Every structure is written in C-alpha cells, then in structure tokens.
Amino acid sequence: MKTFMSGPQDVSIADEANCRSRKLWESLGGATALLHSIHWARLLRPAQFGLLRMGRGTRLGTASVVRPVCRLVDGVAAHLPWSPFRHSVTSLSSEDLDVETLLACLSESSGRPALRPEYDARSLRWLLGFLVPARGEGSLHKALVRDAAGQVLGWYLYYAGPAGLGEAVQIGARHETIKPVLEHLFQDAWRRDVVALSGRLDPRFTADFAQTYCLFHPRLCWMLVHSRDAEVLQAIHSGDAMLTRLEGEWCMRFQMESR
Fold first, then answer.
1. How far apart are CA 15 and CA 133, in angstroms?
2. Which of 10, 86, 138, 211 is the most buried (most CB within 10 A)?
3. Mean per-residue pLDDT for 116-143?
4. What confidence tier does 259 reach under pLDDT thresholds 50, 70, 90?
5. What burial letters (b/e) apply to 159-170, b meaning 16+ CB within 10 Å?
6. pTM for this predicted structure
7. Which positions ≥6 away from 7 have C-beta within 8 Å?
C-alpha cells in the first residue's frame, strides 16, 4: 500500500472502502472524503420497497397476496397532487447516450467544478464496458436529456437491478438544470419498475437532491483519497469536485459478479 501511494499519480481514490480499510488508509497518510461518502436514496414505489425490505421474512404466499395491493398503493401515490412520489408531466425528451456525446458533456456541461475527470474515447469506452451486467443481472441505462427546444440539460447513467433496486452511476448537469435532470431520471426509473434508486452524493447539488425528496445516509462505504497536491485535496474536501462511480472501483463489481 505504501508503494502504491508513493507512485507518480496525482491522486488515488477508493470509493467502496469499509471501516477497516479506512483506518489503514488514514494510518498511511491518506484521508477520508466525508462529503463524497454521503449517499442519497429516492423511493419511487414506497409500498413495494417496504415489501422488498421484508424479504425472506415474508412467506411466499403472503407476498403474492400483498404485492398487488402494494402496486395499487404505489400507483395512487404516483398520481396524487400532494404526494412526494408524484411524477409531473414533462416536456423533456431523452436519447441514448453514446461515448462521443458523453465526452462532450463531461467537458462542457458538468458545472465546471475545480476537479473533474477527463477521458478520451478509448478510455471511456473501456470503462463503460465494466458497467455491462451479466445476463439476468439487471440493465444499464444511459440517457441524454433535452428540453422542449432541443437544448441539452444534462445526462445520467444508472443500473436497474433485477430485484427492483437501482444504482445511479453518474449524473451530470449545470446548476440551473440539475433539478429537471433528476426529475427525468426518477421518472425514467419509475417507468422501468425500479422501486428505489440510490447513488453517491455530488455535494455541489445537495439542495437539489433534497428538493426532489431524496434521503441522505452514510451507508458506511467510504471514499478514500490520497494526494500530495494540496489544491487537489482542497477541491475534494470542499465538495468542488466531480467524482462519480465511474472514477472508483464501484463499477468493477459487475465483472467480478459475472465470473
């Protein structure tokens, strides 16, 4: 570990560390990025999420009886005017996000944080290859979001799991467009029968996540960082950095699970 941290890289990141790894990392001079270790969660189908959480404690017969009732409750909740689970009619449109478009988005529409990833087409295509789940293990969805005039508002990538739980991989937008992009993401996931969506918080958009009824929790998966550059560490610790699940080891789980 000491040899790795003494390498020529500008910054080292681990984004799925447990408490033991965190203690070791900090003993060797690394630090914990507390702001980037916060996660958000958005319930989309609360009744079905509750049934899912009951899990093995629910008998198969009981679950089959309760599930239609949960679907009915969630359907009503999605249309009540005062409900936080309501999805409003939107004039936004979306299209599949390819590598070239994502490269352009990362360089032009990411809110211009002090620290952000910079890829080329080859490295980004290689990285996205890690996100392809094995057959029957869910699906990856990538979308570019436009307004009614055709202007790009932002983009998102998320994984929809087979059990109904979704994981956001990357969300990008400007400060003035992040809220409609989030709303489009939640509506898209709802249409795909995702019961709850979660992801790593981008501290720059904390207020927008809160205003779209997201809950915040630590999850005990720490983001660890190490750099000899004080400006790099300052950008990360102040929340002025775009560090998503594409920049750490989170996406490698799909390759490990497929073996």
1. 20
2. 138
3. 87
4. very low
5. bbeeebbbbbbb
6. 0.89
7. none
